[in-house]
Amino acid sequence: MDHWSPSLAVDEEFEKLAIRMNPPRVTVDNDASTKATLIQVASANRRGSLLDVVQVLTDLDLIIKRAYISSDGGWFMDVFHVTDKHGNKLPEDGIAERIQQSLRPRAYSFQSLTRSVGFQSAPEHTTIELTGRDRPGLLSEVFAVLADLKCNVVAAEVWTHNSRMASVVYINDEATGFRIDDPERLNRIKQLLLHVLRGDRDTKSANTAVSVGSTHKERRLHQMMYADRDYDMNDMDSRSSSMRSKPIVTVENCVDKQYTTVSLSCHDRPKLFFDTVCTLTDMQYVVYHATVIAEGPEAYQEYYIRHVDGCPISSDAEKERVIHCLEAAIKRRSSEGIRLELCGEDRVGLLSDVTRIFRENGLSVTRAEVATINSQAVNVFYVTDASGDQVKTETIEAVRKEIGLTILHVKEDAYSITPPQDSGRFSLGNIFKSRSEKFLYSLGLRKSCS
């Protein structure tokens, strides 16, 4: 049940009024750096401002190479060094206006995050949210149920982590091409999907709910997996994870400034900054200052945070929870397995057929992005074998022949492989001293943290 109080509503109205009186100001500078475009965003401060800005830049397919964040008091100032996805500077024409337009005040909805199958409606599609225990063939079963129920999948995104699965699926009615509104039909879809998700042993996905409003797809996936506690690892998950390279996350208290300092390093990949900010926001922390550097294969981030009640982290147990949750946020989107791209004419039941072929050949989908552009299906799947190991080349070629050699392609993905890291000699403090020393030192934040 959502909690609401008059004081919460009043605070929200004051925030909206402050933003209307002081809308975000965006400036773009292509002269300050030879390698990146500088984007500066200044606005009245409110909770969630940083996430909004990072989300907008991410949705514009911009790569954030560096970021300097400061938001003490009633004002925030964010500076980002960005490129396009090819590493080039941005054209100045119109980019500031596009960012400002995207940052205009929006209404926010507060929803329960405990559901495992939920629906949202948009003008042309219905959105299904799924969470459950991951297992080989699960995605195939989900798409088969939707195909049998005459539901056309327009788009979808699927994440798996720590034996859990979360998915947001956009469907419409096969016959009409419009969203599905009939309550009885929606209830039948939910019940059948819930039966699939539960399988033989999943007791964590026993709830269903119909959601209202809409939200950012990837933002929602983070919320769903966090609510599903994918950061809790059982013994098997822990042993499996220990064999792979792990992010380095440290949490310390900065006594004289009454902040908690969160530092992390890991192999860089697109949208990493967005993923960590999402998690800190979901955990009810406010970022007051931050520095981010991602100019090579490794990414380094440092945050100065407090809980929404204004207090730093007070216990070792809470520090451990922050560490586990940030590790989960980093690894949710990390792509394990071979990247397969499917591009071809879309048709009803295509996903059901493709994922069935994957299942019959012993492939397990670890992540998926499904889209329909005009009449073309543009889908990306990351696959392993049923044990989570690399798939043999002959198996991939057999799958390609069955689906179509001109339709399904194997693609290299520079971000799907995480190289080993040397945790013994790493010093995040030295990285920030040498590469972004002026910013945090000028704020008096790099003195006595312990």
Automatic annotation (TrEMBL):
Q: What is this protein called?
A: ACT domain-containing protein ACR
Where does the record place the ACT domain? 38-115, 127-204, 339-416
Instruction: Tell me which stretches of the chain form a coiled coil.
Output: none
Q: Does the keyword tRNA processing apply?
A: no
| GO MF, one annotated term | amino acid binding
Alphabetical keyword list? Repeat
Q: What SUPFAM superfamilies does the annotation carry?
A: ACT-like
* Source species of the chain: Rubroshorea leprosula
- Is Cell cycle found in the keyword set? no
InterPro entries in the record: ACR1-12, ACT-like_dom_sf, ACT_dom
